[in-house]
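pasting for ref. prot 1 ->
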Amino acid sequence: TLGTQTDYRDGEAQTDPYSPEYIVRSGSVPEILTLATLTWEHCRVHSILSDLFFPCRLQKVQMEVFKKLLQRREENQNELNAMRLNNHWQNHQKAKEEKIGKIQHDCALMLRKLIAKRKNWMGKLERRDIIREYNDFASQTYAPLSRIGFFPDNNSDYYAVKNYYLNTFAGLCELEKSVPPSVFPLKIKAPKPKCIITKTGYIKRSGRLEVVLAQVHQ
């Protein structure tokens, strides 16, 4: 307002006004003396202005708090972004390794095909060398490949012996009846001892040494 502008404008050029001397009677407190402290440097305008500028100081404090909060939020966001980038990078590395492994596998397969074609680059038909196949234990005779239609696990029981007389109890009984009785009584002769045995059944030390020397000699 015009009044406020006048106070600001006059306050910067104001000088100490005339203050005449006065005497206060004992026991009296004149009300007018309350204006004695309102001088140039201690006027009411300064107190009003200080109250007016208090929200500005509060705003500065709020701005500092907002700055700290924004800084903390930015740090948390940076950590989250770094974590996401790390996970994304690891996923790309895993995909790259899988792709490289597939490329290497395909390359080895193509090299084997090229080597096989190079052996017969003229396209001529080769006669089967049976002797060479049976000498090479890695040939198709001993280790046929499943990609040409041979699956060894399907015929794993092809060479298993299946006999009625050996796999069933009734067959064993029938087989036992067909065997002549002269086969059952066994005559086993006890071997003669190679060492000298005493009457008590022990072997002397000299006899053990003779056996050891005979084995060394052989």
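and prot 2 ->
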Amino acid sequence: REFLRAINHFAATLRETFLQQSSFELQLWNNYFHLAVAFLTQDSLQLENFSQAKRTSILAKYGDMRATIGAAIRDMWYNLGHRKIEFIPAMVGPILEMTLVPELELRRSTIPIFFDMMLCEYQLTESFSRFEDEILRKLDSEVEGGRGDEQYKQLFESM
């Protein structure tokens, strides 16, 4: 819970101090996204790996922090505005890793980031080949590694 509070404080500082054209710091924003995804994907938050009793206890005490941080990552992505293109294709892999976490609310709130990435790249270049190349490469790697499930495939296609 304390790590989540610290990450949220970092996010607030980024929005307030390092978002404007004159003060934008690409590396700080990049660090935020990587830190937040690493937090979200850490083993100790993967509730589906625990017994029902332990899962229930964790949810009662802390809630599902994955959905909370996932929504924060999504909001931070949209805060970037025209700067989003600077994170494509580099953030495709981390965002994909996050969306593969088998938690429906998290997936619903974060899969749309991919479509925003495509739109962003297309508006600038009239193509989304950089995004496409990266997502296919990362998807191949993740699926071969045993990640992804039928629910993910159906949700991705329907969205």
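The longest helix spans residues 2-17.
The chain has a mean pLDDT of 94.
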